[in-house]
Amino acid sequence: MEQPTDSMEITGINSYHIDYEMDAPFEPSWYPELEQHVHKVQLYEVETDAGISGITSVTGDASRVDSLDLAREYLVGEDPRHIEQRLDDLASLNSYGPRPWHFEIAFWDIKGKEVGKPIYELLGGDGDPIPAYASSGELRSVDERLDWVADRVDEGFEAIKLRFHSDDMAEDVAVARAVREAYPDLEIMVDLNMGWSFAHPGGGTWTFDDALSVARDLEEIGNIGWLEEPFNQRNYERLARLREKTDIPIAGGEFNNGVHQFREFVEHDALDVLQPDVMLSAGISKTKLIAGLADMHGLQFAPHTWNDGIGFAANVQLLACTNPSWCEYPIEPPGWSLDTRDFLLEEQLTAEDGAIVPPSGPGLGIDLDWDLVEELSESTA
Questions:
Q1: Exposed/middle/buried for residue 70 (C-beta within 10 Å: 0-12, 13-18, 19+)
Q2: How many helical (H) and strand (E) elements, i.e. helices and strands, does the chain have?
Q3: What is the per-residue pLDDT for 255?
Q4: Beta strand pairing call for 10-26 and 377-379
Q5: What's the whole-number average pLDDT of the chain?
Q6: 335: nearest Cα among 17, 113, 27, 11
Q7: Which end of the chain is more exposed for a tag (fewer CB within 10 A), N or C?
């Protein structure tokens, strides 16, 4: 194990834009009429004068927003291990627009590598398996979705998530009803993806009556884990009103920005399930505070994890040092396969018997395929 040094400075931040050609087209339900053929990732490598580098990334649409120049201005010359102080720097960056929370993941990666421990161990966690639910990403017919569910059940999953985003919501309800009839004991989560649908052309919104109608249908179907993001991510009053009128737990928060917005969820009694993402919402330290907020108020904590393999690993490290309800496990082959999600990694993060074991190597616990990075990337180092 390496001994910590008295001082350490960030000396530079390398950036790599990577386009990975997917094995098959992917049609995300949250982005109507998009057929995705390429998984876009912006990879960052934070270098230090101690010879230790930390990695982080942004994926999908977020990879188009470049905060690199500002990040270099605020972070180069600072000690990455002083994470509370660096969070002040990131808060300043956040005020300019692009979310900077993913950089904090690189600081934790450096801190873990310096002492030879995974992040979860630094934060008091353990390496026990975390129950996972299989998270779909497309709208499919009843027969296609039943085939997908059969595969997931065979893999040991005891819960799955369906997407509702059809023009005719009755089609989505029919899928959920068919899954329930075929699998009476399977827990079903439902994601409406209305929390930030305004960001996409044709994304649309739901009325209160739309959401309540679907909630009533789901009450009839039974054993529904939650109804996710029925309205805009900051419409706290409407979320609270729906929560009062249904027995179905209401979930959300994947794209909310900062701890204060989750405090608003709690103060408005707006959600039953808090779903921050360490890459998008708050970083690891502050997301751990959100987990504590959920615990204090008797709410579920189940982070969003739909990222590339680095983002997934970062969220799993956080899950391993909190008290989560579930780990989201994105899987929608052939388009969104493990090859697509984890293409940057030397070894995929695979669920076994419906659970994910947090990677136990130092820092994030993962190794990148740097040969592939060099092959596919446009470096802006």
A1: middle
A2: 13, 13
A3: 87
A4: antiparallel
A5: 91
A6: 27
A7: N
Instruction: Give Cα 104 to chain centroid, integer Å.
Output: 15
CA separation for the pair 148, 144 (Å, rounded):
6
The CA distance from 296 to 161, in Å, is 26
Q: Superfamily assignment of 10-117+369-379 in CATH? A: Enolase-like, N-terminal domain (3.30.390.10)
What secondary structure letter does DSSP report for 297?
T
Distances (CA, A) of 202 to 123, 127, 229: 42, 42, 17
Give pLDDT, residue 289: 96
Beta strand pairing status for 36-48 and 54-59? antiparallel
Given a contact cutoff of 8 angstroms between Cβ atoms, the answer to whether 225 and 175 are in contact is no
Is 60 exceeded by the pLDDT of residue 197?
Answer: no
- Lowest average pLDDT, out of 31-35, 214-218, 234-238, 361-365, goes to 31-35
Rounded Cα–Cα distance for residues 165 and 189 (Å): 14
Helix (H/G/I), strand (E/B), else coil: 187: strand
Residues counted in the chain: 381
- Residues with Cβ within 8 Å of 293's Cβ and at least 6 positions away in sequence, in order, are 259, 262, 263, 266, 274, 299
Helix, strand, or coil here: 118? strand
Q: To which CATH superfamily is domain 122-356 assigned?
A: Enolase-like C-terminal domain (3.20.20.120)
Kindly provide the b/e burial profile for residues 45-60, where b requires at least 16 CB atoms within 10 angstroms of the residue's own CB.
bbbbebebbbbbbbbb
Q: Could you give the CA distance from residue 194 to residue 199 in angstroms, rounded to a whole number?
A: 10
Beta strands across the sheet bearing 54-59: 54-59, 36-48, 10-26, 377-379
Average pLDDT over residues 264-290: 96
Task: Report domain extents, the chain.
Answer: 10-117+369-379, 122-356
* Separation of alpha carbons 240 and 256, rounded Å: 16
Phi, psi of 184 (to 5 degrees): -60, -30
